[in-house]
Amino acid sequence: EVAAFALRIQSELESAEGQLRQAQKLEALGRLAGGVAHDFNNMLGVILGHAESALLDSPADESVRHDLQSIREAAERSADITRQLLAFARQQSIVPEVVDLNDRVAGMLKLLPRLLGEDVQLTSRADANLWRIHIDPSQVDQVLTNLCVNARNAIANTGSIIIATANRVLDDAFCSNHVGSQAGDYVCLSVQDTGCGIDAHTLPHIFEPFFTTAETGNGIGLGLATVFGIVSQNGGIIDVSSAPGLGSTFAVYFPRHTGEHMEAPAEELAIQDGTETILLVEDEPALLRVTGKMLQSRGYTVLKAGGPQEAMRIAAEYDGVIHLLLTDVIMPGMNGRDLTGHLQRTRPRLRHLFMSGYPADVIATHGVLDQDVYFIQKPFLLALLTAGVRAALARNVP
Fold first, then answer.
1. What DSSP string runs through 328-351?
2. Bond from prior residue into 379 cis (ω within 30 degrees of 0)
3. Binning pLDDT at 50, 70 and 90, where does residue 84 land?
4. Are 322 and 276 in contact (CB under 8 A)?
5. CA distance 369 to 384
6. How many helices (H) and strands (E) does the chain have?
7. DSSP bridge pairs for 305
8. What is the pTM of this model?
9. How far lies 131's CA from each of 102, 151, 161, 169, 177, in Å?
10. Does residue 19 carry a pLDDT above 60?
11. CB burial of residue 313 (10 Å; 0-12, 13-18, 19+)
């Protein structure tokens, strides 16, 4: 009995060590993804800005307009890939609200059949008394879409996918097999398929970004990585059961929400004009030029600075009123928050708006995700930029 007990303990330790190594590996990949996303976001900001500016100039040639719209759409799709990278890294900016998972699934069931094709039979099973969860609704859509697409790719010809929701109480025994998880009440979203299944060699790698078993051109390996990031970001658990020839079941567990607060849905943004003077600080020259051009096209006077030192010089030499400081967060020499504090010593009524292509967890350490701070995420379209500017300008300053 002692020998059997020792073997069991050794087996559990080896399992825990394996889970820890995998978690550390995914964490390192997440940090890499976040850094890549920053540079990618800056370049996408340049592309989107020039495309929108050119479209606003209303070229008469319809073929030119079509080309510009295609460029903008391609850049927006690329921004979606960046968001997937940030989701994997658990670093995307989110707006959580209380969500009925059954409602989100019902809405997606209207769209998924066209995505999956006629060869796949899609059915659902919903728990009528489902608990609520607290999550960004778009993240639920991402999780369900990526799991269903992954299931579809595993089905060679015809097959079926079952989407189910259920309340689950997870105990310590279950959570011991999932590093960092805690026992408690969860809401389960599961996707079961009749596909080819996953072998034991492949299973440990399925959540790694850019890992894919699909043929070239049929996927880039971010779908399950995105799911992993979203679930982790929301304190959830993901469990996979699969074997070759027996299909797969992905079960996602989101923590039960016990509060009652409901968020109001955001309104669609419109491009807004203004006449105020804005000090724009951005250390990426191409992005500085295009953002300045976007603001000038809406009537603003723009003072452009390529960094904090130049911004301080311009503010000291400019005789007129500077209504708003629009600044990047992380720059050489001084971050955006410190620059704001320095300028407000001589211009106490100066309002501010921060922007960044870095992920949320990085900029949070610089104090710009506090509730009293205005912030926009790169890359941004003109509507989001002008809405952020108007919101920051409307803020009362003592």
1. ESS-SSS-HHHHHHHHHTT-TT-E
2. yes
3. low
4. no
5. 17
6. 12, 12
7. 281
8. 0.51
9. 10, 26, 23, 11, 24
10. no
11. exposed
